Hints:
Two copies of one chain form a homodimer.
Chain A: H1 4-22, E1 30-33, E2 39-46, E3 49-56, E4 59-66, E5 69-71, E6 76-77, E7 81-96, E8 104-118, E9 125-133, E10 136-143, E11 151-157, E12 160-163, E13 168-171, E14 185-188, E15 194-195, E16 199-202, E17 208-214, E18 222-226, E19 231-236, E20 245-248, E21 251-252, E22 255-261, H2 264-268, H3 272-275, E23 291-296, H4 298-301, H5 317-330, E24 334-337, H6 366-376, E25 379-385, H7 390-407, E26 411-415, E27 423-427, E28 430-434, H8 439-454, E29 458-461, E30 477-480, H9 501-504, H10 509-512, H11 540-549, E31 554-556, H12 561-565, H13 568-576, E32 581-590, E33 594-601, E34 607-613, E35 618-623, E36 633-640, E37 653-660, E38 665-670, E39 675-682
Parallel strand pairs in A: 23-24, 23-31, 24-25, 25-26, 26-29, 29-30
Antiparallel strand pairs in A: 1-2, 2-3, 3-4, 4-12, 5-6, 5-11, 7-8, 8-9, 9-10, 10-21, 10-22, 11-20, 12-19, 13-14, 13-16, 15-18, 16-17, 17-22, 18-19, 27-28, 32-33, 33-34, 34-39, 35-38, 36-37, 36-39
Amino acid sequence: MRSPRLLTICCLAFAAVAASALCPISARAEVVRSPDGIIEVEVDLDNSAPFYAVRRFGGEVIGRSRLGFVLTDGSQLTTNFKIVSAEHSAHDETWTQPWGEKKNIRDLHHELRLTLEQQDDQARRLVLVFRVFNDGVGFRYEFPERASLDEIAIADEVTEFVLADDADAWWIPAMEDNRYEYLYRHSPVSQLHKVHTPLTLETDSGLTICIHEAALYDYASMTLVGKVDRTLEAELVPWSDGVKVHTHTPAQTPWRTIQIVDTPGELITSYISLNLNEPNKLGDVSWIKPGKYVGVWWEMHLNTATWGSGDKHGATTANTKRFIDFASRYGFDGVLVEGWNVGWDGNWYDNGEQFSFTQPYPDFDIEELSDYARKKGVYLIGHHETAGGIDNYERQLEDAYDLYERLGVRAVKSGYVVQGQNIRRREGNKEFREWSHGQYMVRHYQHALETAAKHHIMLVVHEPVKDTGIRRTYPNMMSREGARGQEYNAWDWQGGNPPDHTTILPFTRMVSGPMDYTPGVFDLLLEKGDRPNNRINSTLAKELALYVVIYAPLQMAVDMPEVYEAHLDALKFIRDVPTDWEDTRVLHAKIGDYVTIVRQERDGEDWYLGSITDEVGRTLETPLNFLDRDRVYVAEIYRDADDADWKKNPTAYEIDKMEVDANTVLTLRLAPGGGQAIRFYPKNQE
Amino acid sequence: MRSPRLLTICCLAFAAVAASALCPISARAEVVRSPDGIIEVEVDLDNSAPFYAVRRFGGEVIGRSRLGFVLTDGSQLTTNFKIVSAEHSAHDETWTQPWGEKKNIRDLHHELRLTLEQQDDQARRLVLVFRVFNDGVGFRYEFPERASLDEIAIADEVTEFVLADDADAWWIPAMEDNRYEYLYRHSPVSQLHKVHTPLTLETDSGLTICIHEAALYDYASMTLVGKVDRTLEAELVPWSDGVKVHTHTPAQTPWRTIQIVDTPGELITSYISLNLNEPNKLGDVSWIKPGKYVGVWWEMHLNTATWGSGDKHGATTANTKRFIDFASRYGFDGVLVEGWNVGWDGNWYDNGEQFSFTQPYPDFDIEELSDYARKKGVYLIGHHETAGGIDNYERQLEDAYDLYERLGVRAVKSGYVVQGQNIRRREGNKEFREWSHGQYMVRHYQHALETAAKHHIMLVVHEPVKDTGIRRTYPNMMSREGARGQEYNAWDWQGGNPPDHTTILPFTRMVSGPMDYTPGVFDLLLEKGDRPNNRINSTLAKELALYVVIYAPLQMAVDMPEVYEAHLDALKFIRDVPTDWEDTRVLHAKIGDYVTIVRQERDGEDWYLGSITDEVGRTLETPLNFLDRDRVYVAEIYRDADDADWKKNPTAYEIDKMEVDANTVLTLRLAPGGGQAIRFYPKNQE
Lengths: 686, 686
């Protein structure tokens, strides 16, 4: 019979082992904290399998979540690891954007590089890099060069995000068609199926979280698959053969980002994604200039003009001159022309191969128009719709940008309206159908961007792959669509965008970057068009407010010249509002209900306010403490009239002028579905 | 065969009738709008039955809701009405509170008086009075003198509140025990059973609504019964015989109030309830003075002293002197003494008749202590616990207040710890059991208040009937309990108040008026007590913040002198903080998560900030734009230490001093379960 004493010792030893297995931070766990100490990321092995967890103020935000990969040869990079090294470093740098929503951005973070090695003959290595900011976490995988790991074909990235809380998620589905153009819905994270990122979450505990990715290059884009236990699993968009990513060492994945803030408004001013991208690689970018444009486009949605040739052809020399004249008269920088090039006749949607990117329609004299525009002090904005014909486009890419560069076209809007697994890729005689957000297309979008840069052309991409902050590295990447834009309001078979749509975008789509929403419709009942059931679900004042709320460096004024000329007083706001900002602040923020944003003109004194609401009218108390305390300002207020209402009276607006200062508290009265736009300028500038 | 033409005419006529029945505003409907035109109340008859509906920005907030009464004789005042007259008026007045959370209050409203008459021989009349403010609606019934309606016994008030939206309700149950001392819960309004008011609702559309009553006199208090169709029905607390209210014409009901605001914070600064009460009826109220107090009380909850006589008796002459000395040394105005009077021995809880309100225990020399206090510049605060023995208390009321007045006792805390249908009322030989919130007790509370006023004594009522703003009319009605206060933290069998409790109170209980929560425990682990499982679920900094967050004109510092003397640096905030304010503003507000309130000292320059959070740590960006722009201030910051945590490290606090001005933006870092308190004073005052 053993002595009781010995028995006791054995029990204690066992208890210690058990505690170590249960305890969230074992003695060995690597912990990296945000510079302010509030966010804490634990990275460790659990039975040789890497995991991470995120806490904030000691409370769990992301529970133990798996990390790693399964490769197509059946091998895995998910377990059997040991930790080889852990390097900690701190980083604090302030850098300047060439253009953007904020001039100077501080990159303040703590980094952990954890090198793992598999405990077998191959000794494959995986490096986990975590950067912890005061407002969230970014992490990526690196595959170092290794004799045992050269070519990599990823079958599955097993990254998980185990939400501590059954948060309310604001999401769009990642469906077969792979589009981003859905109305946002919200439901508990445990009820999600497959969704796109940015995925924005409001937790029961009151936090706002956004899961997304940064610096997506030569990799597949990530969707998230929800499980009932509140786990979100990364699911990469595959190649046609099911492989997710082909790469070879040394390689690295995009950053997976988890922004964590106390209020939804802070998501709008969180710059983690930009900070995780590399600095400008283009050198001198003085040729990249934010601005505003009008163009030949909205009339096609009104069905009073067509992209294709014929009587109603929009992109004629005469019609384009009309827009150039208008742009020149009212200070717009560019004139977009869609439907200028051969290929828009017949069933172009199913035959992207038919587009020429150098041959204009005969009634569009591109040389004359380029001259005419130059003399008028504006530039043409080119247009490339691929309709999924990537091979065709890539064959012409060099010539197409060369033509535009020669003609002084400084920006191009591209389109990829055919989405889903509908991208034809040829290899010799074989044809494959690739997904529009897989690695193949990520490579293509990048190739087009770099080609544009070579020709000093700015890019606005419709039906893009999602924005992951690469504009920091390639500042000619201006804006993207990537959500339901204004045109949905002109398509009654799509139901239009309900009034809450634009109160959700700032907290979801816009977290990824600028958007080419194309605001500014004044003829809200679409009386110029021939689709009587269509209408813009907005008020005129709200259309103005969108110029502040929805950031785009190249911002369109979408309506027709004659409509604007009938409302020159309201047009003044669009003429005045900048597209490049010193700073951005959020004054009110409730996802899906309302948002108020103020932005200061870059290198200037003026401030601009945009406030919008959903279908509910509201009054919002607004202290103007962002203004310089030593100045008196004039506020030019563009507001909903007292009887305005998006349904009954959308175009009723008032313009008031008043003196204000930093102590003024304005009550913004927003009509149902309405908004308010204000320009503040120092009084002595009058 | 009729002509097709005639048929058409008939159809149109029918359609017109149908439209009129469906249309929410018929031609006859009386509509009264808020002064800013945003809220609109429709009052009308539907088949001779009165109803009202409330819209805001044209959107329905309260759908068609019934109005009227059923009387105990079987007659009804719910239908068979015609409209006799409709009078509209406008009102705009600013009045001054003798003390309060805001000095000057504007009463700006539009009024509709609609006189209804029943279409029968009796021709009984009912007047509906609606007052519409920019932040909500109040309405009441008036019963004019009428030969056919003299004595009234109300069987049922049929007032309804039909919520347009299945709003999230923050509620406490109206149970058999009739207490208000429950933790708040929240659930959709369609799932409510029977709840107390104030009932706070957050709608899907983003509005915050609070339903309550104002000016409750000689009437039963109102509870609300929820139906699955989102209708809340008024249910009055009855007399023991089931009759709800006995009255005779002319009479009027309390006001039913519906506050409707865009953000939860605006509920805190909505003064509808005060505006619906009559002005001060007490004349010169210079004897009413807000202040702070300490006292013989907390030690009874710690179980180191007793209310009753014996070795541990708390209210001894010596112990009271200790508190008087402490109060005098540190600038407190009053010293509360509970357990001073004969009656606390034996089973007092079930025998409220045994209390004497004039005879002190022999070891409590009330005359000597009154002298001692006076010489030390403080006053005693008396205490009257009735334990439901209302007859006994009312018999002694005059003598009790007379004694206190003679001794210089300037405030009395009363208690009615026995609640529910447990109030003994005798009529001759018969005994009845009355409800603690029915008309009988409403009359008693008022009688006690007016008796106190006659003797120039301020009243703090525990286990009160709810606050309905009568402090405007009787300004000696200082504060009430009427929710779970600090003492629940000392009772481990009650589980304590979880950290979110005080983040819910400002938006629920506090909407009704000041609360005697009794904050300020520094010994949060209750190490002075003998109940090792008890603890305060707070941090020390949060306890300080409660002095700003939870308004009370007579505010207690609840802990023991020796505890405070060990933390004189933190005590300084309690010594400094006023209890009477020039103005109140809400900087952050999320019900159940966090709240930040700033208040300006009445007739002074200083501002005080209190910010608290629930169990989740947070950082809150806080612009100080409320400060005078032309001054520099010193901020004395009492904050959670970086490693503070309500569970693990509650007493870790830091005190910082820094210069700030109106342009400063502070980041408040609140520990889990923590808070922050700041005094701002002009720099030249140093």
